[in-house]
Amino acid sequence: MVGSSIKNVVCRQILDSRGTPTVEVDVTLNNGVMGRASVPSGASTGANEALELRDQKDSYFFGKSVLKALKNINNIISPAIIGKNALKQAEIDNIMLNLDGTQNKSKLGANAILGVSMAVCRAAANYKGLPLYAYLSGGKGITLPMPMMNVLNGGKHADSNLNIQEFMIVPISAKSWEKALKMCAEVFNSLKNLLKSKNLSTAVGDEGGFAPNLKSDEEALKLLSMAVTKAGYQPQKDFKFALDVAASEMFNYATQMGYAGKYYFWKSKKLYSAMELLEYYQHLVANYPIVSIEDGFAEEDWSAWDLMNNKMGKKIQIVGDDLFVTNPTRLTRGIREKSANAILIKLNQIGTVSETLKCINLAQQNGFKTVISHRSGETEDTFIADLAVATNAGQIKSGAPSRGERVAKYNQLLRIEEQLDKSAVFAGSKVFK
Domain residues for 125? Predict the structure, then answer.
């Protein structure tokens, strides 16, 4: 048998950054080379995401254990891929998809399938003696992404009274990844000092950003502007802001309250129609240097998405996360209907490396911007950092420059920039044009 054939698959239950169980997989090849991967988990999840299989037994990790997923790897996936060539990623992913046979990977679990898919990919890169980004791209991945760092947390990601889930900073004037990371870390620490001076909480949320109780979501934008200035930079010139509204949550709350088709910002107790919410976004963009809004409307409110992109898409980036869930079928509809101009890419939304690459390729071929993203429940796995460079995605979000599981991705990008040396390209501000 060839050295790149899969010899062994080992899986285990580990903990993610929220102390919740998740899947880790080791794939060993015949020549002894091994690849390891661990699977992230979201809190604010789209209804159309691939299914994350959990045991639902309250007596063990409050129902969050993943022993069923591990059993599926050991008893179903492993026997089917042992002996297969790890260099044939699409073939191995298709074997798993066929074994599952469902649209949302509910039989085997997307967490089981993705853990194996990523570990196979890593093993193949190690077999070739290549960095993961170089293996994934065939040497064509050279672009370090522009970061969008979540420094103020709200929504389901924190216990603060902020409705909007993420307030992100974008170092628009940076000329390299190293400089971008430095700028963001400086503003993050400036924000911390600012919050302290106002006797506001500097505890952090799931993604490493601060979670203070403020008067309004708009006050958060004012604080970001002040933090940028105090760090020695200028809003608009050096930094712009990005928002992840996670509006499906607001839409669902309104529906539960009997206000179907509306949006209820439950933390400030405000009810909006789709048109009123669009006007609110237009107000924010007119008054603050906002360059990107993610999930401004609910995942099935296609008409509102179409209207927002028509009204605002030439000014800012309109990002679909819950809307598209890294799914080529949903993205195809969004392209056809011009529902957005960018897509968030999350490996565990679709469940295999091959399908993720297919979705990125589809987006880029149709002029959509691509943003590689972490999840709120993360591990120290740095796969997405390499994926961002490999696909020349241009943008990445992995939380604040704090908490080890977030910083691991950012530090990996420092190493990649160093390895690429003079061939490295930084996406820079042009990525938003």
Answer: 6-129
